Amino acid sequence: MAKINKILVIDCQLAGISGDMFLGALIDLGADVSKVTAAIKALEKKEYGYKNIKVHVQRVMRKGFKATKIDATAESTHIKSGPELITIVEESTKNLKLSEKAQQFASNTIRTLVNAEAALHGGELSDAHLHEVSLVDTPAEIVGAAVAMEDLGLFNAKVYATPVSVGGGLFKFSHGTVSSPAPATLAILASKNFPLKGGPVESELTTPTGAAILVNLAEEVSGFYPEIAPLKVGYGAGNKDFAEMPNVLRVTLGAPLESGLLTDSVVILETNIDDVTGEVIGYSVDRLLREGAKDVCVIPMFTKKNRPGQILKIVADAKDAKRLSRVIIEETGTLGVRVYPCKRHILNRELFSVDVQVDGVGETVKVKVARDIQGKIIQIKPEYEEVKKLAEKKGKPLREIADLITSRTKEILSKKEEEP
Q1: Which residues contact 200 (CB under 8 A, 6 or more apart)?
Q2: Which domains does the chain have, with CATH numbers?
Q3: Among 35, 126, 399, 411, whose Cα sits 20 to 30 Å from the Cα of 60?
Q4: What's the burial of 244, exposed, middle or buried (CB within 10 Å: 0-12/13-18/19+)?
Q5: Region for residue 30 given its phi and psi (left: phi exceeds 0; alpha: psi -120 to 50; beta: otherwise)
Q6: What CA–CA distance (Å, rounded) separates 125 from 418?
């Protein structure tokens, strides 16, 4: 696992995100303008159908904030099909000799975009009517973002995002009048269960290209920033200048704090129960875990009139809070569930399959390895059920088998870290 030395926060909760806003923010953050410009102008090929590409980068003001604005224009010879756009982006990043991660990002982004458009308008990529997407803006913003991200070394960063603002009201495009968010934008966000919020103005704030970039970069989404030491902030400007707010996308580059621990946001669900059987409690715990709870515990307590009871306590993702609350009420008969937002410090966890020799016979066991944000191994823990099964099969103590697997895992990981 690579060490995480950089953290990028895409703050799109105020004015949403578009491809040009994101690219402008990266340039404002310090990406090489000449590299980005050259990459976009490299799209000017006869087979791509773009002529006279012009790239204009400038500093602008948006409601008192300085931000970077980038515009790419070109003459387009024809409306591009989905496969054409995918080819243009993928060939361009390959010809630019970008890293594998940068090429994969660009490919994933354009495919997310054209697949959403195709599903809405035609069903097949070749039949989709990609009017707006055919303009040079789309490949320029995606290829430009890939170049800028690589120039800043951000493909090795941990990327966080806030919930995205999508605006509201009605706007016109090639298919007539639609409400914001645009159908393709909504489809892209829905495909990754990416949280959105309407407003704060009646205008389209998040574009399909911006949404496609966002869902293919963000590893975690939270209304709050992670714990970081901020190093630099970049602002990318949108086309419009709103009276109500600055139309800017903010990206923050930071370094992880010295604790080496990741932080995420969860919710705690809990309720007091004193009138159900042990069987009901046991079944409730099993069902909550099957339904997606991260953890469930039962804590002994005394309720009113000194009756013995239990606190049923669940750790879950915020998106699952209402559904799991319903499960708790259905299974236990409780009249209410308390919900608390909670931050927690966590380690990265990876699951490995490890081959070990027990009495001269090869066996494969799954092992969980926990690391801090710098990649340092904090804990190695074989999966209990598999260790139990192997101990029973070999007639050996559980502790002996667990120690054997742990030692073998350390040996394998140590060799991997020594590899160049």
Answers
A1: 14, 165, 244, 245
A2: 7-162+211-257 (no CATH), 263-346 (3.30.70.1380), 348-418 (3.10.20.300)
A3: 35
A4: exposed
A5: left
A6: 46
The total number of residues shown for the chain amounts to 420
Dist. CA 103–CA 94, nearest whole Å: 7
C-alpha to C-alpha distance for 413 and 224, rounded to whole angstroms: 34
Write down the pLDDT at residue 352.
86
Q: Where are the alpha helices (DSSP H) in 15-77?
A: 19-29, 33-41
| Cα gap 268→293, rounded to integer Å | 10
By the 10 Å C-beta count (0-12 exposed, 13-18 middle, 19+ buried), 150 is classed as buried
Does residue 1 surpass a pLDDT of 50?
no
Give the 3-state secondary structure of residue 363: strand
- With residue 398 as reference, give the H or E element that holds it: helix 398-418
Q: Are strands 338-346 and 262-273 parallel, antiparallel or unpaired?
A: antiparallel
Neighbours of 37 (CB within 10 A): 21
pLDDT digits (tens, 9 = 90+) for 210-253: 999 999 999 989 888 988 899 999 999 999 999 999 999 999 99
Task: For residue 153, give the nearest of 373, 3, 6, 372 by alpha carbon.
Answer: 6
Q: Which residues fall within 8 angstroms of residue 371, CB to CB, at 6 or more apart?
A: 1, 347, 348, 349, 350, 377, 378
> Which tokens in the block code for residue 417?
């870290």
Q: Which two tokens stand for residue 210?
A: 């911006």
The strand ranges marked E within 105-163 are 158-161
The whole-angstrom distance between residue 413's C-alpha and the CA centroid of its chain comes to: 27
Better-scored residue on pLDDT, 314 or 173: 314
> What is the rounded CA–CA span in Å between residue 400 and residue 338?
43
d(CA 185, CA 179): 11
E strand or H helix that includes residue 11? strand 7-11
Query: Which of 108, 105, 69 is closest to 249 using CA atoms?
Result: 69
Model confidence at 262: pLDDT above 80: no
pTM of the model: 0.70
Q: Does residue 19 contact residue 141 with C-beta atoms inside 8 Å? A: yes
Find out whether the peptide bond into 226 is cis, omega within 30 degrees of 0: no
What would the two tokens of residue 5 be?
């030395």
Tell me the one-letter amino acid at 342: C
In this predicted structure, the answer to whether residue 261 has a pLDDT above a threshold of 80 is no
